[in-house]
Amino acid sequence: MILSIGDLLLDITIVPERALVPDDDNPAEITIGGGGQAANFCAWVAELGGPVRLVTRVGDDDRGRSLVAGMKEFGVEVFPIWGPEPTGAVAVVVGPQGERTMATQRGASVGLRPEDLRQQWFTGVRLIHVPAYSLFLDPLASAARAAIAIVRMAGGLLSIDLSSAAGLKTFGGARMASELSRIRPEVLFATEAESATLGKPLEGLAAIPILKLGPAGCRVGGRLIPAPQVRAVDPTGAGDAFAAAFCTSYLGGASPIAAAEHAVMVASGAVARTGARPG
User: In degrees to the nearest 10, what's the CA dihedral of 17, 233, 98, 277?
Assistant: First the structure.
């Protein structure tokens, strides 16, 4: 069993037909679906056949109820805390080269508290995956640390994704590096931009540090795992697909290299379609 704790949000993905022109109408493909890094990770784990749970906080509104129902349709076991704040949303604008610009309103998600957690939610959990988004702001950060402690006390593994270079800079790169040194995740996912904010090599912060290189693949233990060439349509959620594939494969007994090779293939498929989750 894998568990993740964090955001379940509405994703509004905008893929313009051409470069955006200010103060004018811009034809685009616009899709609306579920998002949030923790939720996307769980959806991909379920797609890959793994049992998975999501602990999250959403608004007690139509959007929140619809998003929770959508996660259950993927096969994810969801433990929602319902808050009075609105359910959060992310607007994603995809550029002509597949680059993304995101505007985020996290809404109710950051209000999850340690006292909201229930011990039974963590029964049988072998790995907890924590996006760094879940460590940036309290009380969610305190809840995430409490969840990590519960899983670790039962002998489970910890996986962390650094999530956002901008978020890390606001939080403090050195502060995050200190946090990672203290909690010592078994698996750590980072892009080059995210890694650069820390001021320390990833190798000293986790047992298995994984540097994600986008179209170039990834680097694990000094070894480059190349990605196949695909036409990138929308990279949203590809990192979550990568992390889900790696964690499920690694828990299934694969070596870090073999798990990374599988993860690169899954992520390459994810970028070839629009949206953050499996289709």
Answer: 120
